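Write out this protein's structure.
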Amino acid sequence: MSQPVVQCFRVAETAFSMILLLALAGCGGTAQINNPSHSTMKAGNWSITAKSSAETYIVGGNIQQSNSSLVGQMRVLGPCESPTSNFDPSVAAPLSGAVDGTTFTLTVGPTPSGTVIRMKLSGSGTSLNNMAGTFTLEKEGCGPDQGTVEANIVSVPKGHYLGKGIGTSGDSNVSVDLDWPQQAGPADASGYIPLNVNLSYKNSSCSANTPVNGYLAGSIVDIVFVEGDGPNPVIFAFSGLLDPQANTVLKGTYQTLSGGSQPACSGDQGTIELDSTADL
């Protein structure tokens, strides 16, 4: 075969290879290499329960995903944190993270007390609403710790939640009727969802009823009840956790911080379970 003919074959072979590469690129051949697919979390209100052999930590708040990056603001409850009687946006801890394939790597903290929780969660698919994995916790004077994690998205409650208190002090016949007339809106800048609910509180000798404000972060609910505009109102506080699976049970603690114009309301304190299916 003559030299010019060989050169023509080589030119044709090179041209064919270039066309094949372009065709593969057009079919997504190179796109899969440069932009690997990854799972996605459903944006919204997430509850994360981290358990070690000795302790349980509750993390809740709003999580958003953009491509492979995750951000959020979270409330952290646990033995390393200072308890608060109601929500304070200053106690929110930043969440950052990323997803690689089906593995989500999240870091929560530091909290105001210095806690940092690192998690690895697994989930395959899009718009995931639950995942599981492992965690480690670091805090000087409290930890280190490690264990397993379950994460679930939690919808905002709606309807009546009724319950009777188990008093540790004060009146032993406390009942609470908590009514969410409509589902709340999106989370605010602190990562908490503001709640506007109606609460009826009564014991053997007093009763109070008023619209109240509260916050939801994951499964964490905090509500402060204030009846009366004067200098001496009735003040009732509730802090609890929703069942992140059923969302029909709310367990927590209550305390009357001030009896106000109704001294018989003062001193009530205990635990309570509010159930949306209860009939008291």
